[in-house]
Structure formats: C-alpha cells, structure tokens
Amino acid sequence: MHSTSAVPGAASRSAAGGGPLATAAVAGSTRAVTGWDLHWSNVHWEYFLPIFVVHALACFAMLPWCFSWSGLVIALVGTHVFGMGINLGYHRLLTHRSLKVPLWLERSLATVALCCLEDTPARWVATHRLHHVHSDEPEDPHTPRDGASWSHVGWLFRRAPDRRTLAFLDKYARDILADRYFRYLERHPTSTLWIYLAHASIFALAGLVVGRFTGGDWAHGVQLGTSWLVWGAFVRTVLVWHMTWSVNSLSHLFGYRTYETGEDSRNNWFVAMVAAGEGWHNNHHHDPASASVQHKWWEFDLTYYEIRLLRRLGLATDIIQPRHLRRVAAPRN
Ligand SMILES: [Zn+2]
Ligand SMILES: [Zn+2]
C-alpha cells in the first residue's frame, strides 16, 4: 500500500489555507477514451441499472393516481433533507473534513446519503478528492471538457477499473476506511441496495398506514402508500441525483469566476439555489477546506447555516473558516 495518502484529512486543516486539495500536485497524462464511447463490455451496470430503473419508477409520478399533495411536499422537503446527507455529510464533512461531528451523527449523515444511491462513503469521497486533485484534467472523472452530458451523468455509466481498486481507495479515502461502519459497507456491496430498499419501504408503509386512517379504508392506504413511495423515494432520489450531478456539470460550465483556480469551476446561482449552496463552486475550488462557500453576502450557502445550527446545538466543532478569516485569525493563535 501507499506510504502516504494523497489526501490526508487532518492535513486539510492547515492554517495556511486550502489544504492538500488546494495545493495538490498537478499531474498530466492522456486518457485513452473520453466521452460517450460506451459498449456493452464497458458499461458499469452496477450504476447504470439503478439509475435507469429509478428514473423509470419516478415516471409513475405522471400518473394522477400516484399523485398526492403530501407526496409532493415529502419529495421537495426530502430533496433537501436527503441532499444534506450528500452536501453536508459526504462532501463537507467526510471529503473535506471541514468540521467535526460526533461519530453517531457522522454515520447517520452517511446513512442518509446512502438512501440517495450515490455510492458508498469511501468511493464517493475518493472520487471527489480525485476531482479536486485533477480538476478538468484528463484524470478528472467528470470534467465537462469531455462533454456536458458526460460530466452530468455519462461518466457514471462507463466502467473505471482504476477507481475500483483498493489502492485507489487507500490513496484517496484511507481516513474513511479507518471507520468500521464505512469499511463494512465496502466489504458488503449489496448493503447499499438493502438500505435503499428499506428506506423506500418505510415511505410506502407510512403512506399505507396514514392513508388507511385518514381515508377510511385500505384502498386509500394503498393509493397514499404508492404516492409516498413514488414521490418520497423515487422522484426525490432523481432530484438529488440531478442536484449533485449539476454541481459537476453546470458549475464547471456556466457562471462567473471570482478566482483564477487553474480549472473551469464557476459560481452558478441556479445550482447554488437547488443544491443548498454547493453551486458556489469556484469559491469551493479556491478554498476546498472551508466549511463555508459564501464569499459574498448574497452568495447564500444554506449548508453552512445548517453547519452553524449544528454548532449551536453542540453537535459540530472544529469548523474551518474561509481562508481569509483563517489568515486573520492565525496571528492571534
Ligand atoms: Zn468541481
Ligand atoms: Zn469538494
């Protein structure tokens, strides 16, 4: 195994700012294949099939029988709540170590993220750290330079053997694998599927019971249970997917650049709005270690306000401030 991790989490707290993700060495190489060159032999079916099936199941939302106002509300609120598992849990907490939370909360956020079917913590973290180290270079898993739709979703459809090895995880996510629960998830690949099915069943059963007692009979229960399953689980999963994918695609294609970061990251207000602040992506690439991506007063970063709420509740410590504040604070320490 490697003697040094490419992205040691602790070192990203460097007061000098930026951390290893910001200062990582840039390596150039060519990739043999780019873009949508899919064949039966190189399709990553473990990703393609769930993405295809859940999109198909979400289409049932177009049937009037599957609609309920409560289902719609659950889908919209759920997009934010489950999206927090990704934005706050997988991204700012686990990938960038921008804050510390109790172990039970760290694992809970990761479990919420697992209900979004965006891979295991170690693989998500490793892939995103690779993106930061090689942003918009040939090694970047999802650069729009290989095509906009490729960066949005296509990159998930093609097998990437280099990113399926233990050596890759050891290099980019060793700190994640140090956790027993996260290691278990890697050793039992189907556990993610079972967690997803379990949470979808909870939506269906809750709707079934609520519908039975508010509608007066089991027919109402079946209708509401189906609605909550379709909207609360499937539609919401699709919305969270496209929210995350938009950060990879739109925020490297459209928007303004405050910082010259050496790649194509942009601040995109639309993505920031739907992804709870994650669209201020140029700010994030400029200062990946920071828990906040709000560099101007109007660059509203909802995820950071939720981190502050966690701190008020005594559940978050060691919150890494933006680089300019770290510099101001340094002489006082
Ligand atoms: Zn990026
Ligand atoms: Zn990041």
Q: Keyphrases for this structure?
A:
single chain, 333 residues, mainly alpha, 15 helices, globular
Low-confidence stretches: 1-33
What separation lies between the terminal Cα atoms? 37 Å
Mean pLDDT value: 89
How many strands in all?
0
Q: What this model shows, in words?
A:
With 333 residues, the protein is mostly helical. The protein has a domain at 39-258. The chain is built from 15 helices and no strands. It has helices spanning 19-23, 45-58, 69-95, 103-114, 121-133, 148-157, 166-172, 174-177, 180-187, 191-215, 218-249, 269-274, 281-286, 302-312, 323-329. It is globular. The two termini are 37 Å apart. Residues 1-33 have low confidence and may be disordered. It binds zinc ion (2 copies). One zinc ion (ZN) binds next to helix 3 and helix 5. One zinc ion binds at residues 131, 135, 252, 265, 281, 285.
In short:
It contains 15 helices and no strands. The protein has 333 residues and is mostly helical.
Helices, strands, pairings?
Layout: H1 19-23, H2 45-58, H3 69-95, H4 103-114, H5 121-133, H6 148-157, H7 166-172, H8 174-177, H9 180-187, H10 191-215, H11 218-249, H12 269-274, H13 281-286, H14 302-312, H15 323-329
Helix pairs in contact: 2-11, 3-4, 3-5, 3-11, 5-7, 6-11, 10-11
Bound molecules: zinc ion (2 copies).
